[in-house]
Amino acid sequence: MDWPIKYRLEKKDSRTLARAGEIVTTRGTYQTPMFMPVGTQATVKSMSNGDLKSLGAGIILVNTYHMWVRPGENVVKKAGGLHQFMNWDQPILTDSGGFQAFSLADLRNFTEEGIKFKNHLSGDEMFMSPEVSIKVQNDLDSDIMMSLDILEPFYSDHDQMKKAVERTSRWAERGLNQHLKTGLPDQGLFGIVQGGGHRDLREQSARDLTSMDFAGYSIGGLSVGETKDEMNEVLSYTTPILPENKPRYLMGVGTADSLIDGVIRGVDIFDCVLPTRIARNGTAMTHHGRVVIKNAKYHEDFSPLDLECDCDTCRNYSRAYIRSLFSNHEILGIRLVSYHNLYFLTHLMRQVRQAILDDNLLEFRQEFFEKYGFNKKNAKNF
Amino acid sequence: MDWPIKYRLEKKDSRTLARAGEIVTTRGTYQTPMFMPVGTQATVKSMSNGDLKSLGAGIILVNTYHMWVRPGENVVKKAGGLHQFMNWDQPILTDSGGFQAFSLADLRNFTEEGIKFKNHLSGDEMFMSPEVSIKVQNDLDSDIMMSLDILEPFYSDHDQMKKAVERTSRWAERGLNQHLKTGLPDQGLFGIVQGGGHRDLREQSARDLTSMDFAGYSIGGLSVGETKDEMNEVLSYTTPILPENKPRYLMGVGTADSLIDGVIRGVDIFDCVLPTRIARNGTAMTHHGRVVIKNAKYHEDFSPLDLECDCDTCRNYSRAYIRSLFSNHEILGIRLVSYHNLYFLTHLMRQVRQAILDDNLLEFRQEFFEKYGFNKKNAKNF
Prior knowledge:
Chains A, B: Pfam families: TGT. Two copies of one chain form a homodimer. By secondary structure, the first copy, chain A, is an alpha/beta fold. Chain A contains 16 helices and 16 strands. Chain A has helices at residues 49-54, 64-69, 73-79, 82-86, 98-103, 130-140, 158-182, 199-211, 228-238, 256-264, 274-279, 312-316, 319-327, 331-357, 361-372, 376-380; strands at 6-12, 19-25, 28-32, 34-36, 60-62, 92-94, 106-110, 115-118, 125-128, 144-146, 188-193, 216-219, 248-250, 269-271, 283-286, 289-292. In chain A, the strands form five sheets. Chain A has a six-stranded parallel β-sheet. A three-stranded antiparallel β-sheet of chain A has the order 1-2-3. In chain A, strands 7-8-9 form a three-stranded antiparallel β-sheet.
């Protein structure tokens, strides 16, 4: 298929699976590896669109379930789509809505056909199927859409996981067929590779999905309680069986070390609520580990959150001031730390990209890990 | 005295007491009439300094009591003063701290010497006197400082009010003497005219204070429960007895109609928490009256908050989107409406200034009042 979402490979790292490239959309071309801020309810919490652009965000993620439940995808459609609704002219990625239907809603019934549940706000009975998920995402007019998949726990046994993988493949195909009927020309649909920690099932899932020719491939079912080593192992054998000419997206991962280790294993795109979620408690990601700004030791600390950061927050505000904002429950505190954390991860991805281009990714990783305070063993053993 | 805060009269209105001018500070010259956003705890709630500049704020107000109690004026002093602490390079006006000592704290003792109270956070015993108020404001290094005054209820009888006015004058003199010892060269001190609704006492207060030669004069004890007519009457006889070459500041007033009617009675500067406070509940000030964005009727309303406004919020976001932000308790909603409301009042002051220069202030007032929905009687009778 000639999808409007394309991937251009720029350089493969000589010693790892890492790659520098670009993702091409009808709303511009953006460099990868990339971290996507999460705008759950059509807003990246506390950030304006101007903030997101100034910190270097490319694509942002919006949750389909939330838009569907409130204000309703029909309202968004009437507004002219999500881009118009939230005034964001760069690309938007929407998830399938399945994760929230599983985790937030009161689940009623779960069959081959789809998922019946009561929504978490009104209690209204709703029905989510692969077709409904795609139709809603079509109405939202996101640039990158996700297929509805089955979320099986990482440690499920082979039989259980095999059933989940096979249903995920059938649902992916149903979603693709729906998109061919109701999709918009700027939209690309991704399939989601599942299979937990079972290598043969990850391979089966990837084979099924690549045979259907999606615009890109997501790696799902990770960052759900498995160890980092287990996650890294899955990535190491999964990305090599995905097509080189399509983008690869690791869902829900947002720590600095996991981002770097994911890139090293061939991932292009990441998303996570982590940077904005911990910011709301006053925790900043810095080059020297996390800073918990509420700690009394920052009361008279007039240095920036992160001495090595050149973001607006770090150029303009001190730890003492930001601590005072948090002590007083002032919104600006959340905003300043959210901005910094999102800048930290988007900037990290730009540094990682440069390291790939400069052929020194592993050296960059080791230096970063040691400074950040990950243990030496982790830093040196890749 | 040769204060670093000066007032330059540009034009007096031919039919009212209104005047267009400039307030000169060591941190720039700003046009009056002016509305000052309130940054209670060294932050105008939900706004960044960049936002404040882009919406046209000149001077902002910070509350001395809050800085004194947390983080402590010593921390602010160590940071290099309030400007450094909060990274605001335009002028800052601080109040005396008396209002919060009266209203927030557990008041213990109130004498000629000063006010003993327990602070509202730690319960620590604290002592506020005219000298302490000035010393704290000196440490904060605000550009415009207020004398500690006595807050007597508007309807207090003549005897009671006379005592309050006379003590306010003595306290003003003590504060001025303190400033001569510990003040900084960029700081100007204002006296506060009290007297409630007693004309002779307002005159006595103004006479006492002008004999001491302050950098400017505040009008206090208004917007505390009296009617708008009563407030306007007090202004009408108070501003004419204040020196023409000094700025006049009406404390704590922030509705559009009161701002216009205050200017018409010779006021140059206003402040109020109203625009940001009502924004946090989703109430927008618009040219056609208030918009309560949580109302269901805005669910699919894709027009801006205020059709006649060209602020960032109104140029970029719809009522439906902002309503969705408030429905979801998203911080960005508060931020967008706060920005609009502050823009609305600062822009209104620019329009009023232009109307003075164009000699059509009363016509502007009538048109504004009628559109805003104030009753016709109010609109036509000045």
